[in-house]
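pinned: reference chain
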Amino acid sequence: MQKVRDATSSLKPTFSRVLDELASAGVQASGPRWNGKAALPSRDAVIESVERIRRVFFPGYFGDADLHDDALHFYVGATLADALRALEEQIRRAIAYVERHDLATCDHCREAAERSARAFLERLPEVRRLLASDIEAAFEGDPALKIKEEAIFSYPGIFALTEQRLSHELYVLGVPLIPRIISEHAHSETGIDIHPGATIGEGFFIDHGTGVVIGETSRIGKRVRIYQGVTLGAKSFPLDEKGIPIKGIDRHPVVEDDVVIYAGATILGRVTIGQGSSIGGNVWLTHGVPPRSRVTQAEVRETRFEHGGGI
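pinned: its structure tokens
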């Protein structure tokens, strides 16, 4: 016991120095402060708000499984009100943090958060409709799915799309920080990485899902189906005079209606995959294809050699 006390005592000078350095770095990393506190949004509060909205979209599936019909209207109303109240506060904090305003006194941040929360609320019925179409697409596209409820309960694609469609609405409204918190939560839970900026039409089905990556400026039409390991990415990143990637440029693919992209395919750049096309497994594409194309690895290799690709 004495040896332990001696060892601990010998660490005190180093511990004190490291503590001071870490505390100072933590203050700097948390940005502007008011009354000794940072104005950061709470990741936990944001995710809990999303979970409450998931319960509103699918009452009985998440939350109280024994929900009675007579209590449904009250339950949905109370759950939605709690979610929006908490989310509005996190939006206010995010705006204040990014714009370096005083969280406690800024009327601009409060009013902007109220407007964003109201606009977000008005979009929720449409988000719920889109998710219903995604569930229908999963049922129609997956022979292993016997009943739709299985997709709601357990399919990672439906989980990820719920959070992406919610985060996309906040992204379109210009809300900072919050959309990426939501979409990256889905990424960590499912292995499906969809940027909140991506625009996705109805009836989208992600089969299996692990390793799917969909970039910020991707545009996906209606009734599109993709499989695990698919990437809709950027081919290159134009740089400014300081060598920093220029933001806000359309750099990801456009996938038109009724396209199927099979496992492991990679499509890079602002190219268009025409309506009704099929992109085979493990295909690597950096050019667009016309409607109703059928692209396989062999065809891509042949095209590349004909045009001197790989030389």
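why pinned: The chain has two domains: 39-192, 211-311. The first strand starts at residue 33 and ends at 34.
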